[in-house]
Amino acid sequence: METRFAEMIWSLAPVSSSDLVKKAKEELGWARTTTHTVIRKLCEKGLFERGNDGVVRIVVARDEYFSGRGREFVNTAYDGSLPLFVAGFVKRQKISEKDVDAIIRLLKNADTGEQ
Question: Are 14 and 55 contacting, i.e. CB atoms less than 8 angstroms apart?
């Protein structure tokens, strides 16, 4: 649920805490106190910051966050080996030729940052 709420913040930020309370009530059925608790937890994790004005702002971009989670998963589940992760993934899931081409292009351009 934290990730779902974080997605909401990423899509709305900068956004006031009161607007997040309303949105969380509508979409998640949360009480005001629950929303404020989750905002605080996400701020403590360093994803967002809440200013004195009550506005929640992004500290860590969505793609940066998920990239870090992906690295953590590879490190934990595959002892940091990207080739082992890819081998495990393609072993259980067919990937299209288009996806293979896109992955090769990403790997070839990894040094330049191009996609």
Answer: yes
Compute φ and ψ for 25, nearest 5 degrees. Answer: -65, -45
Length, in residues, of the chain = 115
Residue pair 75/66 in contact by the 8 Å Cβ criterion: no
Name beta bridge partners: 48.
58
User: What structural domains and CATH numbers belong to the chain?
Assistant: 2-60 (1.10.10), 63-108 (no CATH)
d(Cα 13, Cα 87) in Å, to the nearest integer? Answer: 38
Q: How far is CA 53 from the centre of its chain?
A: 25
Q: Write the pLDDT tens digit of every residue in 32-89.
A: 999 999 999 999 999 999 999 999 999 999 999 999 999 999 999 999 998 999 888 8
Write b or e for each residue in 90-108: b if 16 or more Cβ atoms lie within 10 A of its Cβ, otherwise e: eeeeeeeeeeeeeeeeeee
**What pLDDT is attached to residue 115?**
58
Phi, psi of 15 (to 5 degrees): -145, 145
Give the phi and the psi of residue 48 in degrees, each rounded to 5: -135, 170
